[in-house]
Design brief:
Blueprint: E1 3-9, H1 15-22, E2 28-29, H2 46-54, H3 59-78, H4 87-90, H5 94-106, E3 109-111, H6 116-119, H7 123-138, E4 155-157, H8 162-181, E5 186-188, H9 201-204, E6 209-215, H10 218-229, H11 242-254, E7 264-268, H12 269-274, H13 276-286, H14 303-306, H15 319-328
Parallel strand pairs: 1-5, 1-6, 2-5, 6-7
Antiparallel strand pairs: 3-4
């Protein structure tokens, strides 16, 4: 059985623990452990293209949508020193052709014409307009000049139906995944999807997709991010003030559209540590593995080490900040059955 396994989480919630755990199973490809393939959910990615073409679409909107998607994919392909880019090397030169083929299928009409988005002046257009000015003055505006435009390939329009869009997108995504997998039966793609996109998965994926969404006690997320990850330059962009963090975190979690798909399993980072055996059995069953497939048990994810990354918030030094989080984010706290006194200085990096 083929599997596309996607660990994901809420910014620092511990999805890498699931990536490490699943990497211990037989025939699970994870060539780029820390690499995040973002072409679905990044700004102007596939999901943005979906929203623009299938919700409130019009001629101008679809022209902009197609161009913005094309530009973003070119950036991901060409930008060698962008940590989420360099698809030319990470995926392969074929990514460019696969993207072009997808765009050609989505784009239904291309005809001469322009709208205000084509007339928006950039630097090159400004220089050309400046050079033309003397000729217009000599002609006293009696001579008609061709308009100087940002784009000269006409209007690129799509009024595509949802069924067609999802069919072409499914084909495109699976072509890309096949190249990433390098012939492996199972592939692990960390953060390939975000929790906020999971309501979409049934439109794009078959039963091969297995998403494991990881949540974590926000008290630990806040303390680790502010006092450990930030100092090591590996922090996530969250507010460092406790009250602002609570507002941000709550808004972030409440913005999520719930997914009812059976392709999604939700776990807690703490359960992976404190209830390791039962949680591994649950994940094994969800992925349709057997216990025999877990060939490298605890070689990548060891709960005896990861336990040091839990309950760091109990240090009295952080008591005032933790009280704020406990009051404002009580619905997201983990119910610890035992109390530990872990120090942030003892946390482990993987």
């Amino acid at each position: 059985m083929r599997r596309i396994i996607v660990p994901t989480g809420y910014m620092g919630s511990g999805s890498s623990a699931v990536t490490d755990l699943v990497s211990e199973f037989a025939d699970s490809s994870n060539e780029y452990k820390d690499y995040e393939y973002i072409f679905l959910h990044c700004p102007n990615g596939v999901f943005d293209l979906e929203d623009k073409l299938l919700k409130g679409n019009n001629a101008i909107r679809s022209d902009e949508a197609i161009r913005s998607f094309e530009t973003q994919m070119h950036k991901l392909y060409d930008k060698k020193f962008w940590w989420v880019g360099n698809y030319k090397e990470v995926i392969g030169p074929e990514f460019k052709d696969m993207t072009k083929d997808f765009i050609n299928k989505v784009e239904q009409f291309n005809f001469p014409g322009f709208w205000y988005t084509h007339e928006e002046v950039n630097f090159k257009m400004f220089i050309r307009l400046l050079l033309r000015k003397p000729f217009k003055m000599i002609a006293h505006d009696k001579q008609k000049f061709r308009p100087i435009l940002k784009y000269n390939d006409g209007m690129r329009i799509s009024y595509i139906k949802p069924k067609e869009f999802y069919e072409y997108a499914h084909e495109y995504i699976y072509k890309v995944v096949n190249y990433i997998s390098r012939g492996k039966e199972n592939i692990i793609l960390d953060q390939f999807l975000l929790p906020f996109n999971l309501h979409r998965v049934d439109n794009y994926f078959g039963d091969e997709l297995k998403v494991i969404a990881v949540a974590r006690d926000p008290r630990d997320v806040y303390i680790l991010n502010k006092y450990i990850w930030g100092n090591k330059k590996i922090g996530v962009p969250m507010p460092k003030d406790a009250k602002e963090f609570c507002k941000f975190y709550k808004a972030m979690r409440e913005s999520e559209i719930p997914s009812k798909s059976d392709k999604v399993l939700r776990v807690n980072f703490e359960d992976l540590v404190y209830n390791y055996e039962s949680e591994v059995k649950k994940i094994t069953k969800f992925l349709h593995y057997t216990e025999k497939d877990h060939v490298n048990k605890k070689k990548r994810f060891n709960p005896d080490l990861s336990i040091k990354n839990t309950q760091v918030f109990r240090n009295p030094e952080y008591a005032d900040e933790v009280k704020i989080i406990e009051k404002e984010l009580k619905d997201y706290l983990y119910d610890f059955k035992e109390e530990l006194s872990n120090d942030v200085k003892d946390t482990i990096e993987f």
